[in-house]
Amino acid sequence: MACNEYKNPLQRGGTDQQQRQLAALKSDYVSIDERDYKEWIVFANQFAGFVKYFDVNNNQTNNWQPFFNSDISAILGTVAIQDINEYRLAIKEKFDAIHNPANKTQTDLLRTNLNALFSGILSLTLALDSYCIQLPESSPLKAIITNLIKTKLQAPFASLLTFYKSAYSSNPLLTLVKESDNSKWTILNRGAQNPQAILTSESVSPLWLNGSASLHDLYNSLTPNPKVFGPDPAVEKKIIHLSRHNLFTGIFDTYLQTYTRIINEAEGQLLVTLTNDSTHTPHYALFITFLKLFKYAKQSLNTLTQRHLDFYYKEVLKLTPKKANPSHAHVIIELAKQVDEFMLAKGSAFKAGKDALGKDVTFTLDADTVFNKAGVAKLMSIYRGDDKDNIGTVINKGRWFASPVANSADGLGAKLKSLNGEWHPFYNKEYFDGALSAIDMPKAQIGFAIASHYLFLNEGQREVNLNLEFAGANQFLPVNTAVDCYVTTAKGWYKVPDTSVKVINKQNNSAAKECSAVYFILQGNAPAVVNYNPKVHGGTFKSLFPILKVYLKNEDATAYQYDDLKDRSLTSVEINVSVGGNGISFNQNGIKQLQISGDSGLIDSSKPFQPFGAIPKPGASFIIGNQELFTKKGAVVLMNIEWANMPASAKISYPSSNYLPATYVQFIKNGTWAPDGSSTPKKNLLLFSWGSSSNPVLTTAYERFALDDGTVVNYTDSYEPYDTKTNQGFLKITLDADLGFDTYQADQVTYLIKLANKTWTSTDGVPFKPYSPTIKSIYISYNAVTNYKIGTNDQKAFDGRAIQYYHLSPFGEAEQSKTLNPDESVFMLPQFNHAEENSPADDVAEFFIGLDNLAAQQSVNILFQVLEGTSDPVVSIYKKLISWNYLSSNQWKAFTDQQVVDGTAYLRQSGIISFQIPEGATTDNTIMPAGYLWIKASISIPTDPAAPAGSNKSGAVCKLLNVLAQAAQVTFADNGNDPAFLSTALPGNTISKLANAQTAIKKITQPYPSFEGKPVEDNTHFYVRASERLRHKDRAITIWDYERLVLEAFPEIHRVKCLNHTKYENGKLYEDAPGYVTVITIPDLTNHNEINPLRPYTNADTITQIQAYLQQRVSCQVNLNVNNPIFEEVQLVFKLKLYEGRDYSYYSKLLKDSITRYLSPWAYGQADDVQFGGKIEKSVLINFIEAQYYVDYITDVQLFLLGSDPNVMPQDQEEIEATTSISILVSVPADKHNITEIPDVAAAQNNSKCADPFNMISI
Known about the structure:
This protein is an alpha+beta fold. The protein has 6 domains: about 85-270, no CATH class; about 330-375 and about 970-1005, no CATH class; about 375-440 and about 840-965, no CATH class; about 445-570 and about 790-810, no CATH class; about 595-780, no CATH class; about 1125-1259, no CATH class. The protein is built from 23 helices and 59 strands. The strands form 15 sheets. Strands 11, 12, 35, 36, 38, 39 and 42 form a 7-stranded antiparallel β-sheet that branches. Strands 19-20-16-22-32-26-30 form a 7-stranded antiparallel β-sheet, with no helix packed on it. A hairpin with a 2-residue loop joins β17 and β18. α1 (about 35-50) crosses α3 (about 70-80), α3 (about 70-80) crosses α10 (about 245-275) and α18 packs antiparallel against α19 (about 1040-1050). The chain is elongated, with a radius of gyration of 50 Å. The two termini are about 45 Å apart.
């Protein structure tokens, strides 16, 4: 057998708080005089029977009992004193004797006990009848007994006589009853009689007789009923059969219920007659007066137990009750309009109404406190999902969520749906049956943005390559990186279609450096990319250039990739734009909105035009301008020209038919065209090329040329049409050839003359007109690249940069550069971290508080009101849970320990956090909304190997009810007030005034009740504490010691179970481990707001405190473990048929919920205790299910105990028992019970197969 399969032989349920209350410590445990009015009345009556009565002649004629038995109080007291349990136990004893297998052959014993049962009922009948007759007609009890006899007892009485008549026989061998002496059995103050004696010599009132003249006549009129004795002729069998028959046992149940009712009514009527009855005789009234006065002496006498405890504990042992703990409250101060800052001194008194004694209640300020006008204006949060946040197929691990309104139902401002208006500062999760069902927060938009005039792309087919060069070797973007791209357009942000976006894993940039790229293409029908306009595009970009935003895709269908990309730091960023395609063939994808002018003035390029004039001459030219093109330094241009009305390729120029005219290009720089036309070499441009015979359209030769840097216009300058004042921004193409128009005209004249003189011969040739270049359409394609070494601290390069790189955070943006932050790397994506001693720590959640009317070097006290019990109990805290930061010029900087005083224990309890705002805090930031001073609470997962697994998660904090600035703590000042004042909390909104008014203060509010107030320890708890202390002596040695120590020190714990020789570490349990002690705790479920009510975990922080507390009180040889229980889930699987007309969807859900409540009632407030171990039987569950009013029947029931390993298939069991000593059987969440509907067709087949239509037993 493996070591971990041994079971601890000591199986017990542990100790709860209630079990500590020992009866012997109660002041009324042993009373010297325990007698009450009824006991004294009966005692006086019985005692009077022993006092002799002498008449006037001094002769004994009777006793004094008639003076004490006829008064209404005497009669009622005699009935009220009866002990119903004594009568019940006597009846039970006789039934048990009959049912005892050892007595089944003892015929006489069985007969005697059966006879005693008949005697018990008949004797009670006589006693009730006697008292009913004694009671006066005016007594309410008489009416009650009369009514009960008629409605409850008359029929059972007759049935009992029938059974007795069937059982009795004068033949000793046949009779089932045997008389015995029952006189010592007193029933309602009279001895029990044998049935035969009652039937022959006693009589009852007509109430019992149902019309018969006498008891004898009633008995004779009854017909015996032998069927109730069964078919077996044996006397023993008959008696046993009768004793188990429900008709027989039902008589006893009815009599017991009625007898109980009469006793209770008599006791109530007795108290009435003692205080409000005028029929008492004088001597009995005097006796009653004596009893009432004696009550005071009795009360004093019965304090002996308490006085003995007080003497021993307080006088001998010198133990004292715990002192009172003053209550505290939080107040919010609002200053008058004209006051900006005001200080209240420590001890300032606040009025808090009056106590029960009418005395004024005062609370005083705990410390000198400065108040100002700061207020909480905004609450925001971001949250990173972990592996427990996956919902179905949606992978939320690593996914970031962001709530611009943290205190709302959806993170966007919707009204809270929670019962108390609570909300979590870091996330908003919804749970159903303990399982996460939704994260009600918007998905965060995280990415980066590029602002550059190179993105000014008006028209055509526009391709953008954003090249990102990363630091370090082999640092590239994964091929599956998914992004969304947006660009600024006139109507707002334009989302580039996903089909046009591509992430390139690796390519070379313009400097031949390996990099990754985000590539996209804008087709000609896409809107123009224009300058950023805050009024149109929103945001706070410090740029007037066009902007490209790149967001990581954050969709349910795909995993979020932030974690894979966040650590990539940038060396350079490059924008490579290309408009108009690659220039392999003629296309019209380039820019066409060109400013063109010729030698004769402006030209309309929307229709064919002759750039060099109708009769081109050498030196003719045309000028081209375009703002988009001429603002990009280094642009490489390709002109796509479609020539109109082209002749055959051999007839362009004259007389040389195969001559392509030359052109050259010039750029205007500083108002001068360069290079000069006479300079050598010229910047020649091959503007013409041969067209094909089938398509006689001549285009350019696809010759590219670069713009001269000197002609590039500053983007921020206005771009005007070409005129005499133009200095930059245009190019000129000049014809550097003679197309032969002059020669042609001369030859044409000669030709016509010869033709007229008929001297022309074919050898002379016919002159042809040279081509006058006509442009049908012109498009300019270009490619431009700019690069910024963002990872280098170079102020000159920064000042001349053509690229601005921004981080896109969930709530804002900020430019990034090594020059701006020399001490930090420039990461591709924004970082969510905070400063630690060695290096920044990555945050998993952040909570932002935006404060208005607050400046640097001021202080602010903020009240965080939490809803107790809403933290995740399984999350432990390692060292520092929350780090506080402030925002300074878009950089989060850590508060020093001296600048933050946390009274909330990391937001795990209500309290005040005081912040001293450092000098560097700013309000004009862009990564968060401007105009506020921002404070951030960050949570990060510890990287220390010593940290417990799963520690420091954001669930460790409690949900918040409110966050309020200008808070202060005040404490109750006892001025001889009512000691009971501290027993209850001071209601909210009670404190509203200072004892001494201050004009600087406009308003005082106490938003929530006071807390931590405790009166002097009461005697009950003091006795328990002292008793336990005397036994365990503040040392943990025995199991009893461990459990009582924990329950006393931690009142929030409901039950503790200590197991000796048991080791429970890292999820493994060994119940035979010498030297180990394991303590398992269950919290008090009152007012708990657990995430999973089916698994009541003790808070991890409390577990740690218990471990530390016990560690100081155990032997050094003990290895101590303190843990939560193991919760073993029980699941039901079955098929269900509802009664006709029942909606399956509704009632199956209702049934699942009912099963869950039945298996785990304490999770729904239906039971106050959680028990270790236990058994669950399938038959009991089947009976429970079939008892539901809407269930017809169920089939194929399977009962499973689910293990911790989901890969192990559980087995169907008839009975489930907890597998370990620290296990608790709980239901699976309601929706995990598997119920399948039995369709009507199958149900009809089942019915047709049933031999028993009532029990539905299939044959």
